[in-house]
Amino acid sequence: LLKNSMRAVAERHRENPADMETVHVVIADGTEDVAIKISDKGGGISRAGMERLWTYTFTTAGKTADKLEQIQHGGGGGAPIMAGFAHGLPLSRIHARAFGGDLHVMSMQGYGTDIFIHISKMGDAEVSVP
Length: 130
Prior knowledge:
Blueprint: H1 2-12, E1 24-29, E2 33-40, H2 47-51, H3 64-72, H4 88-98, E3 102-108, E4 112-120
Antiparallel strand pairs: 1-2, 2-4, 3-4
């Protein structure tokens, strides 16, 4: 999730790196859960993108097929491909829910995105994995 935020900020400020904004992380230790908030000013996600956010086929980091072709043919200029496979958010939400919590995304296109992760302080409670 942090990588997603950092990539969005870096891509938004590619032309003027000196204007790059900081990604903020807040961790709150509550009585029932631990909450994590990740905030960036990376330009946000469109409303159409928000509707598809939890699918395994949606990415804001270019076409997945292009990335797979680069890997198969040894392309990419030697740099590892770190984004664009459309699995990060859905899997992160599954993990949060497996620990009795959840993950929510609030985005403002043209500004940035806030991600809220809640993880239950389960103690010895049992949680079923989806």
